[in-house]
Amino acid sequence: MTEDDNTALPTTRCGYVAIVGRPNVGKSTLLNHLVGYRISAIVNKPQTTRTNVRGIVTKDNFQVIFTDTPGIHHDSKTLMNKTLNIAAVAALDSVDAVVMLVEAVKWTAEDDLVLQRLEKMQCPVFLLINKVDRISEKNRLFSYIDSVRSKRDFVEIMPISATKGINTEELLQKIKSLLPFSEYAFDEDSITDQSLRSICSEVIREQLMNQLHQEIPYSVAVNIEKFTEMPYRTDIDATIWVGKARQKGIVIGKKGETLKRVGIAARKILEELLETKVVLKTFVRVEENWQNNPKNLSDLGIITR
Ligand SMILES: Nc1nc2c(ncn2[C@@H]2O[C@H](COP(=O)(O)OP(=O)(O)OP(=O)(O)O)[C@@H](O)[C@H]2O)c(=O)[nH]1
Ligand SMILES: [Mg+2]
Q1: CA 70 to CA 47: how far, in whole Å?
Q2: Which one of 97, 105, 169, 242 is most buried, counting C-beta atoms within 10 A?
Q3: Is 7 in the pocket of ligand 1 (CB under 6 A)?
């Protein structure tokens, strides 16, 4: 390399980071917090995220492209379950760093499964102990940190809170210091690879998952049939798929109450997101056993190839 080439090195840093962990540990919450936008669905139930979702942070002189992934889990009952695990592992391909999330102060068999998936990774792996805002006895946290130290050679073990933003700025700075010097891969104002249409579909699914119980949250999918942006209004028609005929009545609820609640909550969020009036129409359709149908999964963007 000549001296001239040296002086031509970019002063910016840019790189790719995968966010992985078992279901419900707070991966999507962390992504949304870091980006400062509601990109990924957040629900207090496992297996919320169904596709890899990119969120881009551009700050000072660096850019990080984070990928939020579906929770890595043991269940492989359906083709969708298997696809989620495959997607999470695929996100590890050619990243500059990985952040693995666990929940303070637990360690489960699925956390071990995540570690196994990371076994061959050569890049730095952070262990983030999330939800520390719930831990009042700090000694419990310290002994937990000690107990996880031997699990792998982590570049850093950090207690964080994705909801409260505890240590998240420190995390960004540590990630930054590991990134290669390079031009930005995306425009400075890009924040995601997701279309507005799919972000809106995820808002509706998030509200459905919040309102539904037992196996139903995992049996619904949302397909946007119409998304028409007009100067003062956006019209959205969404079809909610259920996997079995008996689930349709549960989603609609007595006198349509459940679906009405979901519609009101989703519309409120959509109006804030789109900064316009939203007319949301929802329809429920039985798409028998869609979780095992490759065509259905492909239409929903869950199978990408
Ligand atoms: N108290 C507390 N709750 C949190 C924190 N981070 C996330 N949560 C909650 O944990 C639940 C799961 O969060 P998600 O971000 O959907 O978790 P996830 O890891 O993306 O889950 P999957 O997509 O199912 O794999 C939600 O109820 C969040 O509000 C945190 O720092 N503190
Ligand atoms: Mg998620």
Answers
A1: 7
A2: 242
A3: no
244 and 210 share one domain: yes
Angle 257-263-269 from CA coordinates, rounded to 5°: 140
Task: Select from 178, 205, 240 the last residue of a domain.
Answer: 178
| The pTM of the whole model exceeds 0.70 | yes
pLDDT at residue 6, rounded to an integer:
58
Tell me: pLDDT of 48 over 60.
yes
Q: Is 101 exposed, middle or buried (0-12, 13-18, 19+ CB in 10 A)?
A: buried
Residues 6+ apart with CB under 8 A from 254: none
117 is a domain residue:
yes
Please count the structural domains in the chain.
2
**pLDDT > 80? residue 8:** no
Q: Is 290 part of any domain?
A: yes
- Our answer on whether the CB atom of 23 is closer than 6 Å to any ligand 1 atom is yes
Give the residue-averaged pLDDT of 199-228.
Answer: 96
